[in-house]
Amino acid sequence: MIPSSRKFFHARNPSSRKSTITFVISFITLLCICIAVLKHNHVDVYRSCKYTKPASVSVVWDQTEGSLVNDKMRYKVMAFVGIQTGFSSNGRRLSLRKTWFPSDHQALQRLEESTGMAFRFVIGKTRDKSKMAELRKEVEEYDDFLLLDIEEEYSKLPYKTLAFFKAAYALYDSDFYVKADDDIYLRPDRLSLLLAKERHHTQTYLGCMKKGPVFTDPKMKWHEPLGYMIGKEYFLHAYGPIYALSADVVASLVALRNNRLEESTGMAFRFVIGKTRDKSKMAELRKEVEEYDDLLLLDIEEEYSKLPYKTLAFFKAAYALYDSDFYVKADDDIYLRPDRLSLLLAKERHHTQTYLGCMKKGPVFTDPKMKWHEPLGYMIGKEYFLHAYGPIYALSADVVASLVALRNNSFRMFSNEDVTIGAWMLAMNVTHENNRQLCQPECTDTSIAVWDIPKCSGLCNPEKKMLELHQMKICSDSPALVSDE
């Protein structure tokens, strides 16, 4: 299973393609790009809407799988054409904008409407601040870029290309995804006709095909260090300047990820974190991302007082990125059995709107000196309504869809994140599913989540206790059985 104020985005699987049972911990808030399109002679096949800025978008990649699930956010076009470009290619881009790639929004919109295709220049990043400054000026002037958070280096073109296909798949619901270089002369109208023709197969690799010798000499431009794995002659493949992959092919690329845990459980796992103004902490975070590649970054301030906002941002992000049956919010100070969680979530239910957790009620703390003080306690009363403990709970897809559909300022935010979610669930027609295996104080044959309830809202000394629990056979090696509770 595998993309200011800058917008952060990570890709995921849409509902019409492969899906995960659950997405555990995620991020984002994303764009509004509207493109009116027609597919060949078919009328009204593709959604049309007025052109809205920004056309340029930033995509941050964590090398996870997937794409946007929400069809209202994935814009329908016949094809997405990414013109691969670099920091030394300003002149090429200017030439293209004077020929077949229009330089103004209205002309670009007309081209996209007439061909059913969306066009963007695709570029990575560089550590050269002056070049980045020049790029920002060009983005501001033309607004026709897709920006990837990947180093723009010739030696990393395969990585950039994969990032491009993942980004394009995440942003556009297309029949084809076209990779093109910025040094070819293109006839978009004819490309549109070629892509629109009827095919009796859904997995298509379209290009000018070739075979040829494998160059093993390091002094040669097209030297292939892994040539020994290929043989003397390359397999049949398209020339690089332009080729197209059908949606089903790109979906397979998006889904590829070497992660046995995710494959065995049907769940995706990421650490979720916001941002801080502390430059040294952000620098450390970037190093950790580089080393482990298992974090999703939210463009929201990381503050304890803003946990309800971060939680809402997480659910909106997760829904945008993964087509899941459930979305699970978990804290980083609990001991979790992913295999058992997977079985719990996979069980058959006769209701589609589920709020699953270890449920509780209790007194509302109105004393400002107390840790769980609730300033809006007067609106609740003396006792909290039924809601799940905060360390771990899950919302079904239909519930999260309702949250996504509401505007941010339409939610009431209480001081405590678990209470806030519980309040929203109280207003919805959800089924409260109580499972005590999500709040066990010690490992058992059926425990799913272990934490020091009620003494702490997680493990009291998580760095030490987590390792101790994992060394216990009953915690880590006991069978994946789930109670029928």
* CATH topology call of the largest domain: Spore Coat Polysaccharide Biosynthesis Protein SpsA, Chain A
**CATH architectural group of the largest domain:** Alpha-Beta Complex
Distance from N terminus to C terminus (CA atoms, Å) equals 31 Å
The main β sheet shows up as: 7 strands, mixed
Which structural category fits the helices and strands? alpha/beta
Strand order of the largest sheet: 2-5-4-3-6-8-7
User: What is the CATH domain class of the largest domain?
Assistant: Alpha Beta
Rounded to the nearest angstrom, the radius of gyration is 25 Å
Shape: elongated
Whole-number count of domains: 2
Beta strands, count: 17
As a percent range, the share of strand residues is 15-25%
Helix content: 25-40%
Query: Count of DSSP helices?
Result: 14
Which ranges are low-confidence, i.e. pLDDT below 50, for 5 or more consecutive residues? 1-18, 23-54, 60-72
Q: Determine the mean pLDDT.
A: 81
From the structure provided, what is the oligomeric state, counting identical versus distinct chains? single chain
List the helices and strands and how they pair.
Layout: E1 20-24, E2 57-59, E3 75-84, H1 90-97, H2 105-115, E4 117-125, H3 129-142, E5 145-151, H4 157-171, E6 172-181, H5 188-196, E7 205-213, E8 233-246, H6 247-255, H7 260-265, E9 267-269, E10 271-275, H8 279-292, E11 295-301, H9 307-321, E12 324-330, E13 335-336, H10 338-346, E14 354-363, E15 383-396, H11 397-405, H12 417-427, E16 431-434, E17 449-450, H13 462-471, H14 473-476
Parallel strand pairs: 1-9, 1-12, 2-5, 3-4, 3-6, 4-5, 10-11, 14-16
Antiparallel strand pairs: 6-8, 7-8, 12-15, 13-17, 14-15
Helix pairs in contact: 4-6, 9-11, 9-12
